[in-house]
Description:
By secondary structure, this protein is of the alpha/beta class. It has helices spanning 12-23, 38-44, 68-75, 96-116, 144-149, 151-170, 207-219, 221-224, 242-256, 258-266, and strands spanning 3-7, 30-35, 57-62, 80-83, 127-131, 176-181, 184-186, 194-197, 204-206, 227-233.
Amino acid sequence: MTIFTILGGTGSTGSxxxxxxxxSPTPPTSVHIYVRSKDRxxxxxxxxxxxxxxxxxxxxxxxxxxxKQSLSDCIKNSSxxxxxxxxxxxxxxxxxxxxTAAAIISSLGSIRDATKSNDNELYEKPTVIxxxxxxxxxxxxxxxxxxxxxxxxxxxxxxxxxxxRETVSADPGLLNFIFARPPGIMxxxxxxxxxxxxxxxxxxxxxxxxxxxxxxxxxxxxxYGNKAVLVSATGxxxxxxxxxxxxxxxxxxxxxxxxxxxxxxxxxYF
Length: 270
């Protein structure tokens, strides 16, 4: 039995991965989805409301990263864990990627320890597909202004990548990773075509194509294990820069005026 788990199923990337799995010609046996609100998930992806029409067995788990038992129940026996919990806002206290990586690593350690105490179970290490960014690759960084605007978000992404690399180096039997590195991401629920590469990337990609690319990584995890994989669009992506510009302006403000940002938080502006 093959279990694919999605953490952050109501976000843009997580929901794109779920839609890609629904339409995949080779779906997994089971899909586990970890969200804070099941009702929000079903509103985001109405197709999940009728499990009998899905090509896989579905289980939805509600909880947060601090609910270690719920998280462990969700990821236990998973072949692939899609880590899609992220934020588009670059604020000085951004640690969502670091906290997610730490929670996954800790939970897998506990699961393996419990497995060792049960002679009837075997621990099989999963592959964690971690949503990162093409800008983590020095060849494909966005330049000075983009680095400033997304400074704290990129710092958080780098910490998450470092935690996975250090874990694989120190404890190679616990997990494998794949760093999914898209370029600028545009809205869009209809795939236009994608390709994976270790060296080349397009300027933009849609969420739908990113989700399909991450599913391809999962299906070919033996080839991409412990590597950073770039996701490119091969079709025409509809461009909507307004959300990205909003996030970049917010990040610029936080980078150049962190004191004012914290004052705004204290007064309830953010």
